[in-house]
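INTERNAL AUDIT FORM
Audit reference: QA-55
Scope: verify that the stored structure record matches its stored sequence.
Auditor: D.O.
Record contents follow.
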Amino acid sequence: MDINIIENTENPQSDESEYEEIAHTAAEVLQLMEEAWLNEKFAPEILPHKYDIVECLLGQVSHVEENLSNVHNDDLRRSLHQMELDRLRYLVSSYLRLRLEKIERFVYFILKQEEERSQKGEENYLNDNELNFAKCYGQSLDQHFTDQLQFWPGNIPAEWKNQLIVPNIYSYVFMKAKNEIEGVMINHVNEEEEVVDLKTGSQILISYNNVGHLIRNNQSCLI
């Protein structure tokens, strides 16, 4: 996906340096958005939200749409720009769907984790809208199970709510180091442990629980 096609479609002769700067900035934002999307796609747990990147990318999309409004429908540039905008919208919508799917799948676990972060004064992984959705979804599930379990024969286990569905953090992922990383722990099948140092650009297949903190801290990314 290449966003370098962004240019001044309204007046190609006006202040070219300004639009070169806009294109460069948009390319950087797109790279960050693609990285956030891939991380969310391959990570078994929900990651800290990247809505600042989402909003910035949507702002770039709006800028291009404004320029396209002054381009004739028969102009080839309009078709090229429109195709690029469609790809960007797909990228954003896919990222949002991935996060909502995880919220629905692990809602009780995620709400518990968010409550613990709030008590510790840590940054939440969900933004306000996601947190409100998670709470409403969890309440709906509670009501559904309560309504259905009243017909359950015998005594209802009191601890049923504590049986949380949790992400499989021991699943294996492909990771790429964004900079030099020392002391990465690798757990082998025979239960032996090995500590390795990764160079910038190194790629490795590894259990997520060993590198999840590197993904969250932006030291590496999933591929």
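Auditor finding: record pair retrieved intact. The first strand starts at residue 172 and ends at 177.
Action required: none
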